[in-house]
Amino acid sequence: MTNQNVVVPDAKSGINMAITVAVSGSSLFSSAAQKPPAVPGTYITISKKKLLQNLDINTGARINAWVDSMRASSPTHIKSSSPHLSDDHHNSWTMHHPSALDMFEQITNASKGKQIVMFLDYDGTLSPIVDDPDRAFMSDSMRATVRKVARYFPTAIVSGRCRDKVYSFVRLAELYYAGSHGMDIKGPSKGSKYKKGAEAVLFQPASEYLPMIDEVYKALLEVTKDTPGAKVENNKFCLSVHFRCVDEKKWSELAKQVGSVLEMYPSLRLTQGRKVLEIRPTIKWDKGKALEFLLESLGYANCTDVFPVYIGDDRTDEDAFKVLRERGQGFGILVSKTPKDTNASYSLQEPSEVMAFLRRLVDWKKLSLRRQFRIRRRLEEMKMSL
Ligand SMILES: [Mg+2]
């Protein structure tokens, strides 16, 4: 269990109060066994049948856990399987993770005198979750909003996707991009206005895994080819196996197929997201580390006057929420319509609310800059008249 401080509205008194909420640590699943790492570049040819036979009982239990967890984190499943999910439970969750729109003033007040830095996940945050991951387009209005955000605050997109792929969706050269769960970080191609002279490619901590990832990609394509709807995505430094278009009855079988390949590569680990299993190197690098790295490269490593805001919808975003909570700086905002165990402080229901929040943030910043400008001008006028 971990603790986090959030500001919640007190419905009775109408005032806000700070409380400490106990939150269970969200456990991500790791398939990394304690074996020597496989040597990159050695591809073992093995039949699908044999691979499946290799699965031991523990692996079977782990696979069931992945599938159960994936079912539990699927919003449609929660709705259909838990029609009586009590209003009390929902209200209690909303009380502990209030809407970032309702708490807008409190959030901006907390950021006063500090530099806001925006971190945005892509899928399910800026774009809706769709069946075909290749068609997860963001709307023009969302793009225009993110462009305005980047005009006022350093802004980074942090995604599990390959960096080039996420860039092809967002198409804004002024942003920082952290693809492959932060394992592929690049600064603005126009050059950063916040950090002069920043290098184009900032960081790729898992480059030596590239040949292995490529091998596993091919092996996954092979073992999953007979499962209708299964889609394997190569995100360069990590891989995703999408379950979105697979009949739920086939989820266990597909997870087993993925597990069978992973057994051969103990230096890769598996994490579970929204209708997706993700495979990545066991190196200690995640979206939280990417957030810290970006703050450092922007020159805010040991600053107290920085206010990072991270918005995301996925289990993998929890690493970033946790970092913010531990640093005691800024806030995490979870995008979710349903209660979830999270380290985020606030919530937004869907991408349309994310856009509304970002627009308010831009309007607030514009207004406060105008106010500052007026005050400065008045002071100068007063000086002149003395
Ligand atoms: Mg997401």
From TrEMBL:
Any Pfam family matching the protein: Trehalose_PPase
Pathway: Glycan biosynthesis; trehalose biosynthesis
Keyword Phosphoprotein: no
Example GO biological process: trehalose biosynthetic process
Superkingdom in the source lineage: Eukaryota
A GO MF term: trehalose-phosphatase activity
Cofactor(s) required, per the database record: a divalent metal cation
InterPro entries in alphabetical order: HAD-like_sf, HAD-SF_hydro_IIB, HAD_sf, OTSB-like, Trehalose_PPase
Reactions catalysed: alpha,alpha-trehalose 6-phosphate + H2O = alpha,alpha-trehalose + phosphate
Residues in the signal sequence: none
UniProt xrefs under Gene3D superfamilies: HAD superfamily/HAD-like
Listed EC numbers: 3.1.3.12
NCBIfam families reported for this sequence: HAD-SF-IIB (TIGR01484), T6PP (TIGR00685)
This protein's name: Trehalose 6-phosphate phosphatase
Biological source species: Sesamum indicum (Oriental sesame)
Gene name per UniProt: LOC105176474
